[in-house]
What does this fold into?
Amino acid sequence: RAEARTTRKVCGCIRKNRSTGQGGSYVAVIRFDSVHIEMWTAKCDLPTALEYLLLLTSVKHKMLDGRETRDTWEERLQSALVSSATEQGKKYADLGVRFCLVYSFRIFIGTEFRSPTVRSVQELGRFRR
It folds into this structure.
């Protein structure tokens, strides 16, 4: 039952990157299972952000399809990121991937709760426990 609830909360988008202060920079964002993943570089143009969104969408599908494996959640995410990057002709190590957990507490406190942003799957896994 909890699994059905989390799979409905899936979204992805491209938004302006406000953190760099540069007008033409974009961020690809996707959420699933309360995990918020962002990909961007310092000067990420719109075509690059679209490529990143395709890559993140592939990661999401692999994660949602691979729930039956014996691998840990972190191992599945790492594998999905690396294989999706390879499919797009990119190296995972070169991508600016950032993770955080997002929980909606709008009913109780009127907003979302976000964990600190991290850059490794292992750190994200520690937040999930």
Notes: The two ends are 19 Å apart (CA to CA). The first strand starts at residue 11 and ends at 16. Strands lie at 11-16, 26-32, 35-39, 97-104, 112-114.
